[in-house]
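Researcher: I'd like a structural prediction for the single chain below. Treat it as a standalone chain; there are no partners to consider.
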Amino acid sequence: MKEMALSDCWYWLLLTAVVSYLLGCVNFAVIISKIHHKDVRKIGSGNPGTMNMSREFGLKVGLVNFLFDCIKGGVPVIAAHYIFEGYTFAGSGVLISDLARYIAGAFAVIGHIYPVFMKFKGGKGIATTYGAFWFGLGCEDPWYFMIMLVALILVLLFILITEMGSMGSLLGVTAFSIWQGIIFYDRYVGAFNGYAVALFMLMLLFNFLTWFSHRKNLIRLFAGEEHRTSVKKLHGGKRGMDNM
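Model: Treating it as a single chain, here is the predicted structure.
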């Protein structure tokens, strides 16, 4: 394992953040809806995300959109992992690739929620966050990838049973970040320093971004006014609920 000082790699980390943000700005909901000769921002809730796509174009189209948004969060994470693989921050024992992956994922989510090409009005970041977490550890060990897949299925089952789409999505993000935070705590418990703290702060950032982007959903939920997410209603493009 080679060591590298922050002064020797900060500009690469900055470049990773910028490229990841620009990739996150690519909104597949808008692209797919334009293929269908419509603009998702002008129909339904106006939210360019998975749930509005499912509601207006059907569940299959919504799932395709979800997959592309996951990949959008995963690709920069994988790239960051392999770019910085085998290096640690000098004197810290913290892998640069660990921090770089979550910098890449976080900025991809920021780009999705606040895209510069769409006047900073994008989606809500759930699928992109899932993609960042999915590949965040999955690129290290395929078993982590499989565990995340099972966890995602459990989130979908929760939404299916309770019809609480926004809450299920947000609880999934929180659970994933806590689980991965525990893994990193165990990894760096003997080398808890500024770099490790930055890694945990990035975990919190994912939660802040997604929960904040759902603030209107949460207000409606606590007021008892939030619509239920019915898979039956989503199938065929009928109205459901905007949560992603």
